[in-house]
């Protein structure tokens, strides 16, 4: 499996990302100190030194101040770059999934895991943020399905593609929720690695192992 790093963002995009990081950092600090429900977008904007219209332009809604994830587009680009130009088989796609943890962790920088933890604490505690993350995952599932279908030489509505991508996306989401709900007791990398190991495990193997242990 080979990947090509996505092209570096241009100056305008870098400035946009820096502004969004600064606003999100202000929002997280305020929410941590005073509570998510206590602060408005307008107050976050004032703390970050920008106009409320800038916050709405960048994030759209209050919950996106938590949910915005700059890593998602980069992960999609990495997925597109895996063995660029080659047509995959389903076994090859499953092998790529086994490397899913590495693809995800490769886009994180120093301190990013702590920021993900802070964000996920609100996902599991605030219903509107939780619902927003589920909606975002539904959109990502469609995007990933189109990438995978194209690389497999199939239609985006192909049944097998739909099921395989859904297993990966919702398995990943379930693992992230478990990671947060269990108090972040293991590293993010270990959690994601465990998720994709389970997702790509032959059907029934876990049950077989448990039954063998019981015998």
Characterise this structure.
The protein has twelve helices and no strands. The chain is mostly helical. It has a single domain, classed as Tetracycline Repressor, domain 2. The longest helix has 26 residues. It is globular, with a radius of gyration of 19 Å. The termini are far apart.
Question: What portion of residues is helical?
Answer: over 70%
Give a short account of the largest sheet: none
Strand content: under 5%
Annotated CATH architecture: Orthogonal Bundle
Termini separation (Å)?
39 Å
Précis, in short:
The chain is mainly alpha-helical. The chain has helices at residues 11-34, 41-48, 52-59, 64-67, 71-81, 90-98, 100-105, 112-125, 127-152, 159-181, 188-199, 205-214.
Strand and helix map with partners:
Blueprint: H1 11-34, H2 41-48, H3 52-59, H4 64-67, H5 71-81, H6 90-98, H7 100-105, H8 112-125, H9 127-152, H10 159-181, H11 188-199, H12 205-214
Defining key terms:
single chain, 215 residues, mainly alpha, Tetracycline Repressor, domain 2, 12 helices, 72% helix, globular
């Amino acid at each position: 499996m080979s990947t090509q790093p996505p092209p570096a963002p241009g100056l305008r995009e870098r400035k946009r990302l820096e502004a969004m990081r600064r606003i999100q950092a202000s929002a997280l600090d305020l929410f941590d100190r005073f509570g998510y429900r206590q602060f408005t977008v307008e107050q976050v904007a004032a703390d970050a030194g920008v106009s409320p219209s800038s916050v709405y332009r960048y994030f759209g809604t209050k919950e996106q101040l938590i949910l915005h994830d700059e890593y998602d587009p980069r992960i999609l680009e990495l997925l597109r770059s895996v063995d660029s130009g080659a047509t995959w088989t389903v076994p090859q796609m499953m092998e790529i999934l086994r490397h899913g943890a590495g693809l995800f962790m490769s886009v994180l920088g120093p301190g990013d895991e702590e920021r993900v933890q802070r964000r996920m604490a609100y996902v599991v505690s605030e219903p509107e943020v939780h619902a927003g993350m589920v909606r975002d995952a539904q959109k990502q599932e469609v995007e990933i399905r189109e990438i995978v279908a194209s690389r497999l030489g199939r239609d985006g509505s192909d049944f097998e593609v739909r099921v395989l991508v859904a297993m990966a996306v919702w398995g990943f989401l379930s693992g992230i929720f478990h990671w947060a709900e269990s108090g972040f007791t293991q590293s993010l990398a270990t959690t994601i690695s465990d998720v994709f190991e389970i997702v790509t495990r032959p059907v029934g193997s876990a049950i077989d192992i448990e039954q063998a242990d019981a015998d």
